[in-house]
Design brief:
alpha+beta; ten-stranded antiparallel beta sheet; five-stranded mixed beta sheet; globular
Length: 599
């Protein structure tokens, strides 16, 4: 069975003990988000806020808060959809196992979006200011829609099958937006909506945008899915939800999701932007205020029993972490199948996803030579960094499958150990400079701008990593061994690049007096104890606060034929820099306020 709407899903969760009802009125300014985060941290149920201060609409969050709950919601369709996605990624599967995949083609056809011309549902009209005005973090620029489904169509090929459904945050108020008439769209590079807007801009025409909120849980899931070529989001929503995506067009020609709880329609005119943000984002920092497309609101619709859907993002893990686990459950090996020789890839959630990728590939170029070195995996690395959202990665660590058949990209500590034991620091670091990085990553020179580096390791173990520091190891600086071979080292706060170079040169001089064979990586940071406290802290600090080309150094560093390397330990300066965005900090007073709920 599939859910007809969000209310049906909420009722099902309630019936089976997966829902927490909060009947007391809750303030959408920080309180709702704080409650959500506390429940999520406890791996608790979905939350229905029955009374939202300032709005007549109830709100639900944490629907996807655990993988188990997500599997429960899609219990009747998950296996079939896994086969459909796998078949789209590798059509040869159908020829190899025709009985197993016989129903997948029929599933795709039966899941095609359904245009309703006769039995159109009745929607009422409201205003932007009547919606729940939820603010998640203290420095946010206003209320945002955090679980939207933003729908646009190709101006050259109109129609639902060529439409794009994506999840891009929407600012409802604040900054310079005219209340109830304007809202802000924030979308990053490599997004489908950008292609549609570029085509509309080229023709000098406004882009029609429909924003759906709520609806069956299949709809927001479809909006975030990295789908294989030829499988549309609307078709995927029909398949995973066991209910075709129903739609029609209003009198102004805007697409209307028949099962949505709320629909906001409007237009984006060529090159019309307004400041959007700040917004507490999933890297654990605020994305700052920048010009982003302005959407002029035409209508705001809602169904009779409408429930507002929202989430909270911040330093991982958060609900989008669980979203990611569900996506991996569905796609499985889809990405590796698209890149020849790639066996496994993992965007490390604890590091904010895009800053750090782990990958395993085949190394088969010279099997006749005794010594194996990175060759094929470098080709694979280049392919990864040119692939869709993976191209936004900043650090890519890639290993050869032949060196360890049991190696997994999901075990951060063991994967780092494997790489650092084998990497040749004079040869195996490969930089990409003056290139694009994630819009939300402020470690580079400007918005979307920074550098990347590949750490490639193949062959025998080259060093035994230290598990304890020598008794005479004393650099004066506070330092801790975070993992085998990885040292965190605390320096004074970063001032500028020139002073940082002097400080790091001084560290390198001091290091030259110690045997460092067992130390492969030194992370320079503001708080060495915090960074070394656990592996999540280590990767979050190291890879969100550094720009490879600017912040990597090393003992015995050199440049030869434009290749950079070092003979001793690698140093990464992961201190906060003046151009970095501020990190997310909860409001202590709000945290105390929500104690009344005894969560």
């Amino acid at each position: 069975m599939g859910y007809n709407n969000l209310a049906a899903c909420v009722a099902d969760l309630d019936k089976h003990g997966h829902l927490l009802r909060i009947k007391e009125e809750v303030d959408p300014y920080l309180e709702m988000a704080a409650i959500h985060m506390r429940v999520y941290d406890a791996q608790g149920p979905a939350i229905l806020f029955e009374k939202v201060k300032g709005s007549k609409f109830p709100a639900v969050s944490n629907l996807f808060g655990t993988l188990e709950r997500s599997k429960f919601m899609f219990r009747d369709s998950l296996e079939n959809v896994q086969q459909l996605v796998g078949l789209r990624s590798d059509p040869m599967k159908a020829l190899k196992n025709p009985l197993k995949y016989a129903g997948s083609g029929l599933l795709a056809v039966s899941a095609l979006p359904l245009k309703q011309n006769l039995f159109k549902p009745t929607f009422k009209k409201t205003t932007i200011s009547a919606l729940p005005q939820i603010v998640n973090w203290p420095m946010d620029g206003g209320p945002f829609i955090t679980m939207p489904q933003v729908y646009t169509e190709d101006i050259d090929k109109p129609g639902a099958l060529n439409g794009n459904l994506g999840m891009y945050r929407v600012q409802l108020a604040g900054n310079d937006y005219i209340q109830d008439k304007e809202i802000g769209l924030h979308y990053q590079i490599h997004r489908g909506i950008g292609v549609h807007q570029s085509k509309a801009n080229a023709k000098g025409q406004p882009l029609k945008v429909s924003i759906f909120v709520g609806g069956p849980p299949a709809h927001p899931l479809a909006a975030v899915m990295p789908l294989p070529e030829g499988l549309s989001e609307l078709t995927f929503a029909g398949a995973i939800g066991n209910r075709r995506f129903r739609y029609f067009y209003d009198e102004e020609g805007f697409c209307m999701s028949a099962d949505a709880d709320f629909i906001i329609t409007g237009t984006v005119y060529p090159h019309e932007n307004k400041p959007e943000g700040p917004f507490g984002d999933h890297l654990g920092y605020y994305s700052l205020t920048h010009p982003f497309p302005l959407m002029k609101v035409h209508n705001v619709y809602h169904r009779e029993d409408a429930i507002w859907s929202f989430t909270v993002v911040g330093r991982p893990p958060q609900e989008d972490t669980s979203f990611g686990a569900l996506i991996h459950e569905i796609t499985g090996a889809a990405i590796p199948q698209e890149i020849h020789g790639l066996k496994e890839v993992n965007a490390v959630d604890a590091a904010g996803v895009h800053p750090l990728l782990f990958a395993i590939g085949s190394e088969r170029y010279t099997p006749f030579l005794k010594e194996r070195r990175p060759q094929e995996i470098l080709t694979i690395a280049n392919h990864i960094l040119g692939k869709n959202q993976l191209s936004l990665a900043k650090y890519l660590f890639i290993a050869a499958r032949e060196d360890n058949e049991q190696l997994s990209t999901n075990n951060i500590a063991s994967f780092l150990k494997h790489i650092l034991e084998r990497i040749d620091l004079t040869r195996d670091l490969h930089f990409y400079t003056q290139t694009t990085i994630d819009t939300l990553d402020y470690s580079g020179e400007g918005l979307n701008s920074g550098s990347k580096v590949v750490f490639a390791a193949a062959g025998d173990v080259k060093r035994q990593l230290s598990t304890i520091l020598a008794a005479d190891f004393n650099l004066v600086y506070k330092s801790f061994l975070a993992l085998p071979g990885i040292l965190t080292l605390q320096l004074p706060a970063y001032v500028n690049a020139a002073s940082a170079k002097q400080e790091i040169d001084a560290v390198k001089t001091k290091l030259s007096f110690y045997p460092l064979d067992g130390i492969a990586l030194i992370v320079i940071c503001d708080d060495a104890a915090f960074t070394a406290q656990n592996v999540d802290n280590l990767v979050w600090v190291t890879f969100t606060r550094s720009n490879p080309a600017a912040d990597i150094d090393g003992v015995g560093s050199f440049t030869k034929n434009k290749h950079w390397g070092c003979t001793g330990p690698l140093l990464i300066d992961a201190r906060k820099k003046p151009h970095h965005a501020p990190e997310l900090i909860k409001d202590a007073a709000i945290e105390k306020q929500i104690d009344r709920f005894n969560l």
